[in-house]
Write a structure and sequence with these properties.
Blueprint (H helix, E strand, L loop, with lengths): L9 H11 L2 E6 L8 E7 L2 E9 L8 H12 L10 E7 L2 E7 L4 E2 L8 H14 L29 E3 L8 E3 L5 E3 L6 E3 L2 H13 L4 H8 L3 H4 L3 H18 L6 H18 L1
Antiparallel strand pairs: 1-2, 2-3, 3-5, 4-5, 6-8, 7-10, 8-9
Helix pairs in contact: 4-5, 4-8, 7-8
């Protein structure tokens, strides 16, 4: 459940206004779930996009605050793609990040969409980037260690956004692409970026076979042993089945179903 901007402590709002000037209007974001507050902020100096999360206590970050800290840490390393982070505020048990505002639409991943070409270019560019040292300890394979005895096939040194869903690709009227929400950024095997994308393509209307054909255009996919991909799709589907025990939202049910369809397709 998102928190209203007015629920921010006055100390936090005052600290924000020292960076933005007077705030005229707040426009809550309609989607997203990795912050307690996500809003377009209209100020006398223009618009910006702010994300805020409340700490569990003065000494303890919660998962939303940890996500924002990773967004802050990775931002200077992905300046070609991500909206620029201008400032941070940490006060009264809150962390707030202020980014460039991007006027754009969400990407369309349906079959035949021209946005798939933009997605492909983003992935090619990501996979050519060196993984920054800030991600040295943020290893993607750890997310599935509880689901299999050996997940080392998922380990690697590629920079992974790890959540390239349609809402996280913003496309402007001129075709410029911005990648947002870096909460799940990690280091791992390059093919994992593509594997995480398969369920999103299935949810967008591709058959499983079509989705696999689409990701097979990338060398990191074709160079990966099929057994490693089989392992990923199994642990991913199993983990999403477990997730439904605590998250029965419609989107989660749909995502778990897409993951299971993929696993059934590969594993029989």
């Amino acid at each position: 459940m998102r928190t209203d901007w007015c629920d921010l402590p006055s100390e936090v709002r005052a600290a924000i206004e020292t960076r933005t000037g007077s705030i005229h209007r707040i426009e809550p974001a309609p989607t997203g779930n990795h912050a307690d507050i996500a809003s377009t902020v209209h100020t006398g100096r223009g618009r910006l996009f702010a994300k805020a999360a409340r700490k569990v206590s003065s000494e303890l970050d919660g998962p939303e605050v940890r996500s924002l800290r990773w967004e802050c840490a990775i931002n200077p390393h992905v300046a070609e793609f991500a909206p620029r982070l201008h400032w941070t505020v940490e006060a009264a048990g809150w962390l707030v990040l202020g980014f460039d505002h991007v006027q754009a639409r969400h990407a369309d991943f349906t079959p035949g969409s021209a946005d798939l070409a933009s997605l492909g270019k983003v992935i090619d560019a990501f996979q050519a980037l060196p993984c920054p040292d800030v991600l040295a300890g943020k290893r993607i394979e750890r997310r599935w260690e509880s689901m299999a005895e050996d997940v080392t096939a998922l380990a690697g040194n590629a920079l992974l956004h790890a959540d390239l869903n349609p809402a996280n690709l913003l496309i402007t009227e001129t075709g410029e692409v911005h990648v947002v929400d870096w909460a799940f950024v990690a280091r791992g095997a390059a093919f994992v970026e593509l594997a995480l994308l398969v369920p999103w393509l299935v949810k967008a209307g591709h058959s499983v076979a079509e989705a696999e054909r689409w990701v097979s255009r990338f060398p990191s996919w074709t160079a990966t042993a099929p057994a490693a991909i089989d392992l990923f799709c199994r642990v991913f589907a199993d983990k999403w089945d477990l997730n439904l025990c605590t998250n029965s939202a419609a989107w989660a049910v749909d995502h778990a179903a897409a993951a299971r369809r993929w696993a059934d397709h590969r594993l029989g």
